[in-house]
Amino acid sequence: MIHKTKNRHHKFLLLLIVIAIAIIAFIRPEFLKTVFFESNFSDIFMLLAYLPGFFILVGLIEVWLPESFIQKHLGKHSGLKGALYAFFIGAAIPGPFYLAFPMAAMLWKKGVSKFNLSLFVGAWSCLKFGEEIFELQFLGLRFLLLRVFLTVPFIVLMSFIMKKVHFEKSEN
Amino acid sequence: MMNGAWMFNIVVFVIFLVYFFYRKNNAIAALKLAWKSFKIILPLLLIIIILILFIDKVFSLEKVSSNLSSISGWKGYIAAVGLGSLFHIPHFIAFPIGGKLLSGGLNVGVIAAFLSSLIMVHLFTIPIEIRELGWKFAIVRNGLSLCFALIIGLFLGVIY
């Protein structure tokens, strides 16, 4: 039942957007033309480029790693080692930020602790090994080191706060 | 920069193929799970792409970020954090823009606040976050990240 209402919710949102586009098309058709025909689609393409590999990876991890394994290494009693694993997994997988959430949801279902989950999402957002080279190139080593050494303590602090928050997974 | 994405896809695909020949049934199960988790975000993704297309046309990031230098003091920090959360761009586009602002003589603290919120807070993907991890997680994480982006900017402006 919940699933059905959720789907209807999405359809409602899509309908709203279609109506909004129709209104814009009526008032200023030339604006709509620039949006759909003269946009820079390479940004959107970059958002989607990691999708196929990413979801196959999520599926493979879900099949490969048994729950006991993940609970042992990333669960509540994994300690400092688990936290480091979570952080490095988050920083090592390439891809745009919104893809962190399906991965995190899958890991959570398998029994990752809240602290490690938050570390994973935080590391994914602020530190990507593959892309720090651009920060080095355009902003310099000093900026890079200062930003990373300021951000990492905040990610850890945020994870401690997250541990106290009783959030729940929405039904899929 | 497309090379990174291609390489990632190819590596995962090769791993999948090897696994497919090794354990056919498990590989097919993995593929089904992949499709299932993709289906969860698909409708939201469509909506978000349309929103991003429109926001890119209404404000261009280059124009907006060059306006940052005209706002001084604490208002500049707030504006930087707010604008950063609106855009959804990969890091390798965010950093060159930061570099351009830096050579343009903008305060380093404002640039750090802008980049931090640009990479940590994404307003339009919050629906995906809520769908996957629940609304409490989304609100707490984004709220804290906004505050932290501001604090990181202020700190970095002082010690840089």
What features would you describe in this structure?
The complex is a heterodimer of chains A (172) and B (160). Chain A is an all-alpha fold and 172 residues long. Chain A has 9 helices and no strands. Chain B is mainly alpha-helical and 160 residues long. Chain B folds into 2 domains: 1-42; 59-159, no CATH class. Chain B is built from 8 helices and no strands. Chain B has helices at 2-22, 24-58, 61-67, 74-86, 91-103, 108-120, 126-133, 135-159. In chain B, helix 2 (24-58) packs antiparallel against helix 7. Chain B is elongated. The mean pLDDT of chain B is 85. At the A-B interface, helix 1, helix 2, helix 3, helix 4 and helix 7 of A face helix 1, helix 2, helix 5, helix 6 and helix 7 of B.
How do the strands and helices of this protein lay out in sequence?
The complex is a heterodimer of chains A (172) and B (160).
Chain A (H helix, E strand, L loop, with lengths): L1 H26 L1 H9 L3 H9 L1 H14 L2 H8 L4 H14 L7 H10 L4 H13 L5 H33 L8
Helix pairs in contact in A: 1-2, 6-8, 7-8, 8-9
Chain B lengths: L1 H21 L1 H35 L2 H7 L6 H13 L4 H13 L4 H13 L5 H8 L1 H25 L1
